[in-house]
Every structure is written in structure tokens, then in C-alpha cells.
Write a structure and sequence with these properties.
382 residues; alpha+beta; Aminopeptidase; eight-stranded mixed sheet; 13 helices; 35% helix; 25% strand
């Protein structure tokens, strides 16, 4: 008898099937516990829905989707000069403010889809496209017809799964790479890493360490995060406003909800100068990987104390000591991450404007709005 393929779209975690986590065992960002966070602590301009794919009654695929209304945020970023910002903000709000993402826009990497390895990739991708079409229609009925539909963050191999006719109208793009730090088997402690880098970069580490003398680092509990809520949000916004391109801003209680749901899988470290919180970083345990999450700092302290660079070294030290395999440093700050040993891994996506005429110009205009950043790759290792 011929198998029957189907899909269901859920707007609440409590409604997803009990078998959901059987496909999320290798990625915490697809797990029920994590998507509870998306449901309760997503940015104000984001709504999430969850897709399950079935063969008869058996779940064969899961996906996270995010609908973003960019008209609800005042600016997309302040990196570029005023004229570029003005043009970009106007065009996005007029022609691209409603964005449907198949994937997770809050992370870097393929954290939006998982499927049963015994089912053909083409079958899963084709069924996911059907579900996406249905979701677009649902959003349109609610008055939120997406301008843009994006499938984001696939490796060079994974993006080829989409080489089927259903995606012929999509433009394939690549922006900033994912910076990944591979931890060598021979590194048992942080000093092994320091021994493996050349003198120039050992001197960089020594300079940074001297700058941060007197700063105390503290692993913060849920109560600690709650008690420093306003200061944490201020430090986060200080960094977020300087980003190249923002599609959302986190709410004040985001990190509390994260810690409450993921518990020991979510690490929050505060940096204090005379009992004043001057910076923080966050890490997420994801199997053999450590994923970096959002951070924040006081700009003056960052320059004086080389705070960001010291945070990178602290993340490396923790991950080596705890025997992790990789650190997912994500995109942004490519050169400084490269200087500590992270390597650039290209990520790819697919984008389509849902107005067929405007879609003809997506490939020509895409890099105007998010041009590739020029940076110099470093290699600190001997």
C-alpha cells in the first residue's frame, strides 16, 4: 500500500506530537524545552510556529519557523552611513517588512530542521515546501502575508538538498560565515591551547589578561540574572544597537526564561568591576558542541579592559576543560574570532520575494542591503 505523506502546523508547544523529541535528540535547539522558550520569550515582533512531517502516522521531519514583522522595530542597524540606513529602512519596511523564516533567526547554523535518516531528503524537503506554502496562506488570511520567505543557514552540502523544481524561483545566497572553533584531542587543559599558538598570539593573550586584572567573573544563577535584569538588558542593547543588521531585539526577561527552561544547559557569566556588572556572555551546551549566544558589555570597559577578547579566551578555556569538541562562535566579529583560532565556514540560504515582479530583482539588490564584510583571516597556530 502506498505511503501517505502529510504535515501539521502547530502554534503552541503543548500541541506538538509526543514523538517530536525523537528527531531532536542531536540538537537542543529543536527540543521541546528550547521551543518552549521561543513560545514564551521570543522578541515582540516574532511569532513562531512548528511543523511536523508525517509518513502515515510516523513523524519523519520537524521544523521551526519564525514570522518577523520588521515594521515593529525602529532601525535595522547603525553600521552603515546615514544614507544607506535611510534607504535600507525605507525599502525593507515598504517591500520586505514581513518575513517568514524556515529556521531560527536567533542562531547561526542549521538549527531549524531535522528529519528521519531513513526517509529520502527530496521527499522531506518537498513536503516541507508544501507545509511552507500552507503556512504562507494561513498568515495571509490573518493579514500578515509574508513579503519574503527564507530558508536559512545550510552547509555547502545541505543547500544542495533544495535542488528541486519547487525552489527554482528562490535566490541562493551566502552572507557572513559561521565561525567554528575545533578543539583538538591533544588539548587537555587551556595551557595546551596556549602552547599551540605562536608567539604573536600568546603575546595577545598576555596583554588581554593583564588588562582584565581586577575584574571578577561570576557564574550567575537564575536569581542573579533576575536581580540584574535591567543592567543586563542595557548591556545587551549597547551591543545590539551596534550590530550590522537587526531583525529583532530581545526582551528584558529573555535570559531569565532561558535559564529557567534549559537550567544547567544554559550558562550565564557576568564580569564585575567593583561589584558593578560591566559585561556578560552566555553559552549553551548542545551535545558535543558549545554554542555561544548573546552577550553585552559597557563600551568604555570593553575598550579599556579588552573585555570581548577575554570573553573569547574564557569560552575556549571552559570548552577545553569540559571536553567539548567545538565552539560555535557564530557570525559577526569575524577577524577577532579568527585571531583566537576559529575558522570560517560558509553558510547558505534561499530567499524569495512573494511578489513575482519584485522577486526578479532580489538577486541584483540582495548584497546592497547586506554586503559582504571585508576581513582578514588569521591563523594563530604554529
Amino acid at each position: 500500500m502506498k505511503s501517505l505523506f502529510s504535515f501539521k502546523i502547530y502554534d503552541s508547544v503543548q500541541n506538538i506530537p509526543d514523538t517530536w523529541d525523537t528527531l531532536a535528540t542531536n540538537n537542543i535547539f529543536l527540543s521541546r524545552n528550547y521551543i518552549k522558550i521561543l513560545e514564551t520569550a521570543a522578541p515582540k515582533n516574532m511569532s513562531c510556529r512548528f511543523i511536523a512531517l508525517f509518513c502515515d502516522e510516523t513523524i519523519i521531519g520537524i521544523s521551526i519557523t519564525q514570522f518577523l514583522d520588521l515594521s515593529q522595530i525602529p532601525s535595522f542597524g547603525a553600521r552603515d552611513h546615514c544614507l544607506r540606513n535611510t534607504i535600507r529602512n525605507f525599502i525593507f519596511k515598504r517591500f520586505g517588512s514581513k518575513v517568514l523564516i524556515i529556521g531560527n533567526n536567533m542562531l547561526t547554523g542549521q538549527n531549524g530542521i531535522a528529519f528521519d535518516k531513513n526517509t529520502s531528503k527530496e521527499t522531506v524537503i518537498r513536503l516541507l515546501k508544501e507545509a511552507t506554502n500552507s503556512l504562507e496562506k494561513d498568515l495571509k488570511k490573518q493579514g500578515n502575508k509574508p513579503h519574503l520567505t527564507i530558508f536559512k543557514d545550510y552547509s555547502e552540502t545541505e543547500i544542495n538538498y533544495f535542488d528541486i523544481p519547487e525552489f527554482d524561483s528562490f535566490y541562493r545566497f551566502s552572507t557572513q560565515p559561521n565561525m567554528i572553533f575545533d578543539i583538538r584531542d591533544s588539548w587537555q587543559v587551556f595551557d595546551n591551547y596556549l602552547t599551540g599558538i605562536n608567539k604573536k598570539y600568546r603575546d595577545q593573550y598576555k596583554r588581554a589578561s593583564k588588562k582584565v586584572a581586577g575584574i571578577s567573573k561570576q557564574k550567575m544563577s537564575l536569581e542573579d540574572i533576575r536581580n540584574h535584569r535591567e543592567r543586563i538588558h542595557d548591556l545587551y542593547m549597547n551591543v545590539a544597537h551596534k550590530a550590522a543588521f537587526n531583525t529583532f531585539y530581545l526582551g528584558e526577561t529573555h535570559f531569565e526564561i532561558f535559564k529557567k527552561n534549559l537550567k544547567d544547559h544554559f550558562l550565564f557569566y557576568g564580569y564585575f568591576d567593583n561589584n558593578e556588572l560591566i559585561g556578560f556572555n552566555t553559552l549553551i551546551k548542545n551535545g558535543a558542541d558549545i554554542d555561544t549566544y548573546f552577550l553585552g558589555y559597557d563600551e568604555n570597559c570593553q575598550k579599556e579592559k579588552m573585555l570581548y577578547l577575554n570573553m573569547l579566551y574564557d569560552m575556549i578555556g571552559y570548552s577545553i576543560n569540559k571536553k567539548y569538541s567545538r565552539i560555535i562562535f557564530a557570525r559577526t566579529a569575524l577577524e577577532i574570532k579568527s585571531s583566537v583560532g576559529a575558522k570560517a565556514v560558509n553558510m547558505y540560504g534561499l530567499i524569495k520575494h512573494n511578489n513575482p515582479f519584485v522577486n526578479l530583482f532580489v538577486s541584483r539588490t540582495f548584497h546592497y542591503f547586506e554586503p559582504k564584510i571585508e576581513w582578514k583571516e588569521r591563523n594563530p597556530f604554529k
